Structure formats: C-alpha cells, structure tokens
Amino acid sequence: MSVEITSPRFKDNAKRALADGPLQAALSKVGPGFIGKRTAAADKLPEFDALRDSARDIKDHTLAHLDLYLERFEEKVKAAGGHVHFAVDAADARDIVTKICRDLGARTVTKGKSMISEEIGLNDHLSAAGIEPVETDLGEYLIQIRGEAPSHIIAPAIHLNKEQVEEDFRRVHTHLAPERNLSEPTALLAEARGELRQKFLVADVGITGANFLVAETGTSIIVTNEGNGDLTQTLPKAHIVLASLEKLVPTLEDVSQLLRVLARSATGQEMSVYTTFSTGPRRPGDPDGPGEYHVVILDNGRSGMLGGPLKEMLRCIRCGACMNHCPVYHAVGGHAYGWVYPGPMGSVLTPALIGIEKGANLPNASTFCGRCEEVCPVRIPLPKLMRHWREKEFERHLTPAPQRYGLAVWGFFARRGWLYRPATGLAMTLLSVLGRKKGRFAALPLAGGWTGHRDFPAPEGGTFQAQWRAQRAARNTRHANRDAKKDARP
Amino acid sequence: MPFSSPRNADLSPPRVGLFCTCLVDMIRPSVGFAAAKLLEEAGCDVDVPAQTCCGQPAFNSGDRATARALAEQVIAAFENFDYVVAPSGSCAGMIKAHYPELFTGEPDWTGRVDRFCAKVHELVSFLVDVRGVTRVDAAYDGTVTYHDSCSGLRELGVKDQPRALLASVEGLTLSEMVDADTCCGFGGTFCVKYPDVSNAIVEKKAANIVASGADTLLAGDLGCLMNMAGKLQRQGRPVVARHVAEVLAGMGDAPALGEPASEKAP
Predict the structure, then answer these.
(1) Whole-complex ipTM
(2) Are residues B55 and A387 in contact, defined by beta-carbon separation less than 8 angstroms?
(3) How high does pLDDT run on average in chain B?
(4) What is the widest separation between alpha-carbon atoms in chain B?
(5) C-alpha angle with apex A136: A131 to A140, nearest 5 degrees?
(6) Do A93 and A245 touch, CB atoms closer than 8 A?
(7) β-bridge pairing B120-122 and B83-86
(8) What angle (nearest 5°) sits at the alpha carbon of residue A151, between those of residues A145 and A155?
(9) From residue A480, how far is each of A343, A469, A485, B48 by CA, in Å?
C-alpha cells in the first residue's frame, strides 16, 4: 500500500477520527489491553529496567560503529550464499525488490509484516509491475483488502472490529458460500487461514521484514505470533528481507537481550510465539528453505540522523509501547498521523523521513506527558526529540502565525517584569470583575480553543505577587509600629 | 559566585524563594499563600522575589532564545535562596530537568545552572522529602481524588508525597480514580493548538474523576486543574477542583477553582 501523506491535515484527520464511532470503540481497548500487559510483564522481571539500559547501550554501540557492522553483516550473508543490497532511498529499494522478482519470473509474492514495505510503498509498485503482493500477517491482510495503511506498527488493523472484517471478507471472498457463519472471530481466522494457505503454496517470492540483523552471523530475525512469517520465507523460491539499516545488532548474545525487552514492551509476552532466525538460502541437504536469500538494507535518510540530534531515534526496536501509552494515540488512532509511523515514535521519525514541512503537525500533537519515554525499552527521549522538531520548525518560521505572534507578545512581556506585573494585574482584575458572578467564563475572546470545550475560571483578582507585597508591607509596618511603641515605653 | 549553601535548619531557617508560577500569580493567588503557609509551617523563611514565567511555553514551542532569556531571569532572581520551591511539578520540572539543556556547552553557565537546579523543588515533595514533614494540621470535609500531573510524576517523582500528607488531613477521604497517572490533555499550549484532541483526552479524565465518587478533585498543577475543572463545569458535574496545597494548608474553604464567591465549598 503506498500511502498518501496526510500529516499536514492532522487536525482534520483527528476530527474525523474523534467522530468515528467504531474507531473510538476499537481505540478504547488499546490502552487497557496493552498497558496492563506490559506492566505485568515488566513487574515479573526484576532485571527489566537493567535490561532496558543494556538494550540502549547495545543499540548505541552498534550505531556508533554501524559501518563496521554493516560490512561484517554483508560478508557473513555472502558467505552463507545470500545477497545484500544497499538501497539509498525508497525508489531504490522498490527497484531492487522488483528486479529480484522479475528475474525469477515471479507472479505472486507473499509478504510477512514489514513496516519498511509500507514506508517504501512496495505493494502498489509490485502490482504496477504485474506482480501480485499478498499480505500474510492477518492484520496486514485485512488492511490490504481494505486498501488502508496500518494504524499501528505491531497491530496494523487495531482500528477494525470483527463486524467490519466480516463485511470485508464477504465482499472479497466471493467464491465462498454466502450463507457461511462468520460471527465468531475464530471463523474469521479460519477463513483467512484457508485463503492464505493457497497463496503460500503458489507464491514465487516471500518478502519479510526484520526485527534484527545479526552482524556476526549474517542472520535476519523476525518475531511473529501467527507463524505466517515462516511460511512466507520458507516455501517460495526466494526470500527477500527488507530492513532499515538501524536493525543491525552485533551478536546473537545482543539479540537475546533485546528480545527480552521487545515482546514484553510490545504485547506483554515474555517471548513472541515465533522467533525465526534465517541465515542464507537452503543449503544442500536442508529439507526446505528458499533457493535465494536477499537482504535489502534501506537508508532513506537514516544515515543522516547518525551522530546528529535525532540519533537516539535510531535505537527504536519498533515495539509500539510509546503509542500504546500515548493519550493522543488513544484519542485519534494511527491513521490521523497521516503516514506510515504513528504515535510518539512516528512523530519523531516521520519529519525526518518526509520533511518537517509536511510532518510539522506530528511533533506538535503531543501533550509532552512523558509516558512514551517512561516505557520505551531503549530509553529514547521522545519528548526531547519532538521538541527538537518544534525548534526546527520555529527556526525556519514554519510555526503557524497566530501561535508565533501569541508567543512573541507573551515573550515580550515575560522578559520585562516591570511591564508584565502591572499588565497582568490589570488584566486579571478586569477578568475577575467580569467573571465574579459566575466564577467562570463559558466564552472568552481569543480563547475559543479553550472555551470551545471547557469553562475558564475567573481569576480571584489581583496577582499573587502584588498581594504578597502588600501583605508584607503591612506586616513590616505593623512590626515597625510595635517596635516603635516598645522603644517609646519609659 | 552568588551562591549560598543550605544552612543548618537548627541554626537558622532555610531561606526559600517561592516561585509562584505565572498561572497561580494571575488566576489563583490563594495557592501562593497556601504554599507560603505550608513552607513557613515547615520552618522556612519564605520570600517571593519579582518574577514572571519559567519559560516553559517558549521552550516547548521551539523558541529556545526566549526560554533561555527567561531562564537567566529566573536564575538571577532566585539563586541567592537556599531553596527554590514551586507549587507546580510542571514549572519545577521545567527548571530542574530542562534548564541545564538551555545552557549546554557554555562553561560559564553550566556550573552555575547545575547548582541552581539542585535547589529547585516542587512544593509537596519538598515538604516531605527535604523538610521531613509527615503530617499537616488541616481539616477538609470531603472525599477527594488526586490527579498525578505528568511533569511532577515523571520528571520529579511526585506521587506518594501528596497522598501521604493528604492522609493526615482530618475529615478527608481519598478515593483514587482509574488512570490517575494518565495525562489530562492540558499539555500547555497543546490544549489550544489541538483543542479537539485535548478535549477527547480531558473527557476521559472527567469520566474517571466522576466515577471515583469524589466531590473534590485535587492536583499539584494549576494548568491541569483549570483544564479538568473547566471540563467538569462545562458538563455540569458536581465536583469542585482545588490545588492540593490549599487543602494541605487548611485553606480548603475558599471558593473552589472557577466557582463564584457566594457558593460555599463542600
């Protein structure tokens, strides 16, 4: 699915999402579901926070020596009989994948879940080249038949309910009996499994993402809960791994540490159901496996983040904990963010990949509550990185004018206390008098953003600083008088 | 170097500069007086130097230059105190956690800023953690629920301290709401930049507050309180909102936030 970028229209997207009943019903389960499970999993593991530190350090070390580990990885893949392709950008990556498919005369491609595939808009490109892409992760399959983008990085169809899925299945699976019962989730699952089973068997190429690439062995690793990834990569003639360059990890020992925080942070599982290691194509004597093994490593702007103010973002292991704990994501869901990566991690990564001009809304659409940073398994300071984008936006005069002027006026006064104090004193006295009767305002000029949804309290009247000084002065006078009386006594 | 170390409490009371916060200064001075009372009861010598704002709105809007200018102003006004205390986790967090970022790579400033930030505290955690206060002499007739404001909670670790002191308030019952530690949707300028999203978040918060059965909502940050109180009032809910300092200082009988002077508090 190649995604139209609607991030500049975040506000409209959000408004629509807030009015979408089924979406809101689906979103209401995100927080309670994910948060409780993650907390329980973290609480059960005394060394969880120490593992997070270790995970952060592993990623930092790898990123600091990425050239070395990329070379090592390439060497090892080649030694195992595979191929490594470096793609500078999305177009480059699409062309590489399409060429591999064409060279094999591929007509059908099965796909495991891959956010990189979404990022580069691979499915549309393959379709245009006459190659049918079939998503085999259930969530991805659902959004593929709906022509949608994922709304969550690990649960792409979390915005859907089972009635919508039933409707889509009846619309698409027209060769099946119309009177079949699809009221239970298990029936939907069985139908999807039946449909996909055929696709697995006829596919010429299998494409998967990668959660990790291991430099010391040339291994790609995927974690899944459905087993679709294994069928995708084992049955066809070729297995293509799509991964961005920050997926590199030095050793299997490092991976085993990262895996301990990944599933716990994502779904609260100790381990995902399947953790699949792939190293090269089928060897002589292997009972199964692909005839060719390709790894496409995508840059797409990431190398420019190395060593810069956003470098910490490259630690991300795509667990989704930040969005699972984000009040804004809970309110509007993933599609409102308008591109591939939603939630806090998307709010940092998206402007880096599509430009701050298009992505500016996202780092602004955060309350900075800090919960994302609190739960991030690799301790990415997400609010700080969102603030970095706000600074870039401000520096480049991209901040919307009303906000910019409001800030300038406020800044002017706040820097001049001698002007600020009488001005606020006067304004508060006025508001206090106007609001005295009701104690609050239901509407205020220039404050529609506030009073559109909530009342604004009438100030008590007079500033604290003025009252404090008056009281202190009165107290000092009292004390002085008392002392004077004392002195005057004979 | 204008710097004085905290003195021995037995010899002379520590001098505390009260950073009242711009919202308290303008909207609800009672909170400033409540904070001063609590600090004096905890044996502090309180003063309120001339001040404006900590600079957080500029900092979070990407206007680093203004934030930096305001930070310099705050440091100059407060650095001669033994402690700097704010009745707000958000403003105290801005100063303590973020001022150092505004001066990174400036050797002339870093030492001075670090020493300054070490003296900065949120009010209730200062009372409990620094001054060793374990109980307050106050009464409040009502059932309260306490909202954990994000910055205080996550940047400064304010969570148990207000609950510990509230437990000593005579007549007060604490009824915890679901998701007390989830954001209320205020987010400073966020609430006016993205009013619809902010509203959706505060609606959930309001529902949790109402479901707690409390008649009073307490929190340690006026911004969050204004947001939640404004929503509850717009919905016509019979829950009033106060800053936690007002109740701890025994000043919980003043009109609640956004309530007219004639109406008595519960």
Answers:
(1) 0.94
(2) no
(3) 94
(4) 55
(5) 95
(6) no
(7) parallel
(8) 85
(9) 61, 16, 9, 21
* Partners of residue B206 in chain A, C-beta under 8 Å: none
Which of B48, B58, B257 faces A457 most closely, judged by CB atoms? Answer: B257
pLDDT at B5 over 70: no
The rounded average pLDDT for each run of 10 residues, N- to C-terminus, in chain A (490 residues) is 82 98 95 94 97 98 98 98 98 98 97 97 97 96 95 96 96 95 94 94 96 98 93 95 98 98 97 96 94 98 96 98 98 98 98 95 97 98 98 92 90 93 93 93 90 95 95 91 78
Residue in A66, A107, A111, A62 with CA at minimum distance from that of residue A86: A66
Residues 6+ apart with CB under 8 A from A311: A63, A305
State the pTM of this model: 0.95
For residues A191 and A173, is the Cβ–Cβ distance under 8 A? yes
Which among B23, B238, B266, B52 has a CA at the least distance from the CA of A459? B23
Rounded-to-integer distance, Cα A427 and Cα B229, Å: 22
Contact B188 A368 (CB under 8 A): yes
pLDDT surpasses 90 at B11: no
C-alpha distances in Å from residue B114, one per residue of A128, B101, B106: 59, 10, 12
Longest dimension (CA), chain A: 116
A367–B26: do the CB atoms touch at under 8 Å?
A: no
The residue to which tokens 């609001």 are assigned:
A435
Instruction: Say whether A438 and B260 touch across the interface (CB within 8 A).
Output: yes
Helix A417-435 vs helix A401-414: crossing angle, to nearest 10:
110
pLDDT at site A86: 98
Distance from C-alpha of A239 to C-alpha of A232, rounded to nearest angstrom: 8
Q: With bands split at pLDDT 50, 70 and 90, how would you rate the model's confidence at B265? A: very low
Which chain A residues are closer than 8 Å to B72 by Cβ?
none
Q: Which 3 state secondary structure label does DSSP give A462?
A: coil
Per-residue confidence band for B2, with pLDDT thresholds at 50, 70 and 90: very low
Domain B134-248 has CATH 3.40.50.11810: yes
**Run of H or E residues at A409:** helix A401-414
pLDDT of residue A276: 96
Dump the DSSP string for B71-103: HHHHHHHHTTSSEEEES-HHHHHIIIIIHHHHT
CB nearest to B191's CB, from A442, A449, A460: A449
Of the candidates A11, A374, A442, the beta carbon closest to that of B194 is on A11
Q: For chain A, which domains are there? A: 7-131+204-305 (3.40.50.10420), 402-488 (no CATH)
Q: Where in chain B is CATH 3.40.50.11810?
A: 134-248
Query: Does A412 touch chain B if contact means CB atoms closer than 8 Å?
Result: no
- The closest of A202, A235, A229 to A131, measured between CA atoms, is A202
Structure tokens at A376: 């991030």
Cβ contact (<8 Å) for B189 and A374? no
Which among A479, A448, A313, A454 has a CA at the least distance from the CA of A386? Answer: A313
Amino acid at B228: M
CA distances from B7 to B12, B66, B83, B133 (A): 7, 33, 10, 18
B9 — pLDDT class (breaks 50, 70, 90): very low
Check residue A403 and give its pLDDT. 87
What local confidence, expressed as pLDDT, does residue A490 receive? 57
Query: How close does chain B come to A213, measured CA to CA in Å?
Result: 34
Does the CB of A421 have a partner CB in chain B at under 8 Å?
A: yes
